Amino acid sequence: MRIATLKLEGQERSAIVTxxxxxxxxxxxxxxxxxxxxxxxxxxxxxxxxxxxxWYQTGGKNRLEELPLIPDxxxxxxxxxxxxxxxxxxxxxxVENPSQLASIPENEEPVSFMKxxxxxxxxxxxxxxxxxxxxxxxxxxxxxxxxxxxxxxxxSEAPDVVAGFTTALDMxxxxxxxxxxxxxxxxxxxxxxxxxxxxxxxxxxxxxxxDLEVSTILNGEVHKSNVVSNMIYRPWFIVSFFSQVMTxxxxxxxxxxxxxAAVIRDGxxxxxxxxxxxxxxxxxxxSLSSRRT
Length: 293
Prior knowledge:
Blueprint: E1 2-8, E2 11-17, E3 22-24, H1 25-32, H2 40-45, H3 49-63, E4 87-91, E5 111-115, E6 120-121, E7 127-129, E8 136-146, E9 162-173, H4 174-179, H5 184-188, E10 194-196, E11 200-202, E12 213-218, E13 221-227, H6 235-243, E14 253-255, E15 261-264, E16 269-274, E17 280-286
């Protein structure tokens, strides 16, 4: 199942993605006398996502064809949701060649950071290059969405607490970070420095997760690309690792690292493209001319 959040008459409501367009969950509730939350974040918080997905997989998908829908071309995407409790990131997580994985020390641990929810934007919102930075980068990443409250999860059980995945862009004021590695949090935390969506994809839709190709696209050209199987720390390990540190909550977002960062400038358009996902696209503006939409 795939879910997006759309802007409609000043509100943001979630919808299921079909081959013909998008159907609001609110429309499903009225048509079939059900009462699912009509926002993705609330579905996660109230543990309704699995129930909705079971309905979808056992006939609901076909029943959606009966309902009014929003054509893809008319969909005005919002962020999947606005206020995750945590946005966690992993850095330096890809190797160029799988043979390099054998040389990673067993006791090596992921480079990690956190971002505030004030950095969050959605599809087609402008990334604003801060006046403090002369070298800002954007990184395409596969993002994990946590579905269950969990702590100290074994790697083998990590899939049980993951709701699904989405596309994401992680921005960094690279020159600030280069001045001092201790400035990592500052360099990652500017407004508009995290974008995610437009589609949330449940994990059952991605049976071949290691084969997914993740690409950073700049102005329509592939800047850097790699596959999940070339990650040093794979998604289930990452979930287990962070759950040993902190309680993970429904809606928490974990960024899994990038195949490569692209320097972005005023007027650029940057994308995250992942096989099987709708691309995430954001324009870039300088701070003085940028306005969040």
